[in-house]
Structures are given as structure tokens and as C-alpha cells.
Amino acid sequence: MAENRGTRQLSARGAARLRAAELAEQFEQAAARRRQLAADVLVAQVELEEHSAETERRAAKLLAEAKQRAAKLREERASQADVKRARLDALVVELLDTGVTPKEAADRLGMTPAEVRQAKKNHDAAKAAAPAAAADPAPAGAGSATVPSQQDGEPAEQDLALTDGPGSAAV
What we know:
Oligomer: single chain
Helix content: over 70%
Distance between the termini: 138 Å
Radius of gyration: 44 Å
């Protein structure tokens, strides 16, 4: 029986060693997996940071381009706005020339009296500057100027001759 017990003890020790070796292998595999995951996380963090930095670089470039385009658009449309402002001022002055008071004109136009006065002032200043500009000869090949009533290629209402056609009644 002593032999049996010794054999069992050897067998138990061997099994314990095998089990310990298996557990050690499992722990080593788990540790290796954790090290690999940590390395993968570090790589992913670097990739994310680079991606974010590239996104910010691209966004900054797009914003700069958009700002340039917006500035160019504003510059191009400023002269068009000047023409439209001159047309508005001329129409306000034309209404004032009919004998309407500035207050009444403001009420009719949905403007303040100050805006009506400013329109008249702007129109008078443009009118005073026009003879000075007309005195300067235009260089050869210069294009023709458009008057506010010819804006957008459409004649203004005051430029259209109203005729009484057949079947129409004069108002």
C-alpha cells in the first residue's frame, strides 16, 4: 500500500505540476494578449490624434478659402449695391419732387424721415459729382455707363411710355 500511496502522490504531484504549467501558460497568454491590446490602443490613439489634426488642417483650409470667396463676393456685389442704392435714392427724390413732404414720403415708403433725408442728400451728392465725372474724357474703348433706370437691362417704369391702346381707358 505504501507503494500505492507513493505512486498516487507522484501522480498527484505530476498532475499539480501539469495544472500549474497550464495555468502559467494561460496567465502568460493573457498577459501577452493584454500587452498586445495595450500596444493596439496606443497605435489607435496616435492614429486618432493624426486623423483629428488632419481634419482640423483641412477644415482651416476650407474656412480660409470660404473667407476669401466671401470677401470676393462682397467686393463684387458692392458696386451692384451702389447702383441699387443710387436707384433707390433717385426714386425717393423723384417722389419728393412731386411735392410730397419728406414725412409723407417716409410714411408712404415705410422709411424713416432720416432715411428719406439721407437718400436726398446722397442723390444730390451723386448729382453734383456727375458733372465732374462727365468733364473727364473717357479713355478709348471704355464701356458705356448705365443709368439707374436701366439697371438689370430692364427699363424703369418712368422710362416706359404709357399709351392708350384700343379698349383701354386713361386713368
